[in-house]
Design a protein that fits this description.
The chain is of the alpha/beta class. It contains 10 helices and 6 strands; from the N terminus they run ααβαβαβαβααβαβαα. It has a 4-stranded parallel sheet. Strands 1-2 form a two-stranded antiparallel ribbon.
Length: 227
């Protein structure tokens, strides 16, 4: 079955129709983005924050989760998806903070399909086929090269991506400000204390055999951080 047929079946299903009307009854006929009151309920669209694809449409924790669905008007919906001539200005975000502050989770909850995400941990994993927490030192220069090339792409707005998210520690104020200024980025600081980061590390099963290594990363970040 073709991709669009799978999604069409879902949006025509009684479950979705009932779910969407329930949201309207609960929240009212107001677009959550532009705050315009929409006279007819049929003109209020249930927008999934996590874009539906055939692989996740039947996961009701995604497709029928009220926390992951906004009610928006046609104009705002087309603007979000960059469709039918609606094109928003590309935005760039620098998400920074200490290790285990939740940077990747923060971006996953906000980026949409078609956004460009630049994350050192993920790049390591992509070129080494190792878990994201295992960073072979001998590949550092290669990963940095890819990372910097992607930043150059963002700087000149090369490519058809929607928004760009840059994830990194950026403890040094001057390096951080240079990236912000060079790329026209909006800085987003995840202000998490050292104690909280260490607490998260202590219960992180994926890093249970690398506690000392990651504790060093955390200690190093706080030693070098400048506001």
């Amino acid at each position: 079955m073709a991709k669009h047929e799978v999604l069409k079946r879902f949006y025509n299903s009684d479950k979705w129709v009932t779910f969407r009307l329930g949201l309207i009854n609960e929240r009212g006929n107001t677009c959550s983005r532009c705050n315009q009151i929409i006279a007819k309920s049929k003109d209020l669209i249930g927008h999934h924050k996590v874009e539906l694809i055939p692989e996740n449409v039947h996961d009701h924790n995604i497709s029928l989760n009220p926390e992951l669905v906004d009610l928006v008007c046609f104009d705002c919906h087309n603007l979000v998806h960059h469709r039918f001539g609606y094109k928003a200005e590309k935005k760039v975000y620098l998400v920074y903070g200490p290790p285990l502050s939740g940077k990747t989770t923060f971006v996953k909850e906000r980026a949409i399909r078609g956004d460009l995400v630049v994350d050192m941990d993920m790049l390591y994993s992509a070129v080494s086929m190792q878990p994201f927490f295992d960073k072979p030192d001998n590949l550092l220069m290669n990963v940095r090269g890819i990372y910097n090339q992607l930043l150059d792409n963002i700087k000149v707005r090369h490519g058809k991506w929607h928004n760009a998210w840059i994830i990194g520690g950026y403890a040094d104020k001057y390096k951080r400000e240079k990236v912000v200024n060079d790329l026209g980025a909006e800085p987003i600081f995840l202000d998490v204390s050292k104690e909280e980061c260490l607490q998260r590390l202590a219960v992180d099963e994926e890093r249970q055999y690398r506690q000392d290594e990651w504790q060093g990363y955390i200690e190093n970040w706080f030693d070098y951080y400048t506001e």
